[in-house]
Amino acid sequence: MQPPGNGPQDSGGDHMDIAPDQDQSWGHWLEELPETVGRLWLDKYFEYTHQQEEEMLEDQIRCLKAAVGVGHAVGQYHLGLFYRRGKGVPRSYSKAAELFAKAAALDENNRFSYVIPMAQEQLAMCYHLGQGVEQSSTKAVELWTKAADKNNADALVNLGSAYANGQGVAQSHSKAVEQWTKAADQNHTNELLNLGTSYAQGRGVEQSWTKAVELWTKAVALGSKGSYYNLGVA
């Protein structure tokens, strides 16, 4: 297989013919070209990722930058993660935030729209922590709400915490429990822990030790150490 430096190769995914078929115009084909090229580079990126070898990190970054170069939102999101973590590239919160913002602005009708709530959640965290952008709890809540509306588990977790602590939004334990319940339904261990604690304390929900123990037990089965401690003192 040809290495990234020599250009992307289709590794067996959807194949795009060089000439458009009868139902396509050249204009439509050219509009699709950047997305297709970006997808091919992403295929190579994920291939290197699955190999899980440290020496492949440089190749991963090269593939992501190539995908970003043609405006591919999934590449923007993943490269943003690398910049935020400082992995394989110098840490740059501003570049991370910029890339997350671009991915979050993807058209909802795009075939890769699944990346939108993921990018919104990461951009929200940038605003929450003031990393690469001016700190704004209000903006963070706005973005978490959009991502939570698409059932993104991490956004549900953080939006619930924002309601619980009154950060960027009026404090509401009942709304916090509402968000955490949705995240817990996805077996998010932190929210099984938080939701169990809400039931134990009767905050935002009717107090119930039985429900608290049920949620903590479920969290322990998923590896939550905090829930294990809570069961010990319940």
Assigned CATH architecture of the domain at 156-234: Alpha Horseshoe
Biggest sheet details = none
- What's the CATH superfamily of the domain at 156-234, by name? Tetratricopeptide repeat domain
SSE string, helices as H and strands as E: HHHHHHHHHHH
Secondary structure tally: strands: 0
What is the first-to-last residue Cα distance? 58 Å
Computed structural class: mainly alpha
Q: Give helix % range.
A: 55-70%
Per the CATH scheme, the topology name of the domain at 156-234 is: Serine Threonine Protein Phosphatase 5, Tetratricopeptide repeat
Number of helices: 11
Mean pLDDT: 78
Shape: elongated
Tell me the radius of gyration.
21 Å
User: Low-confidence stretches at least 5 residues in length (pLDDT < 50)?
Assistant: 1-33
Broad CATH class of the domain at 156-234 = Mainly Alpha
- Work out the strand percent: under 5%
Describe the protein's architecture and organization.
This protein is mostly helical. It has a domain at 156-234: Serine Threonine Protein Phosphatase 5, Tetratricopeptide repeat (Alpha Horseshoe), CATH 1.25.40. The chain is 65% helix and 0% strand. Helix 4 packs antiparallel against helix 5, helix 5 (115-129) runs antiparallel to helix 6 and helix 6 (137-149) crosses helix 7 (153-165). It is elongated, with a radius of gyration of 21 Å. The termini are far apart. The relative contact order is 0.06. The model is unreliable at 1-33 (pLDDT under 50).
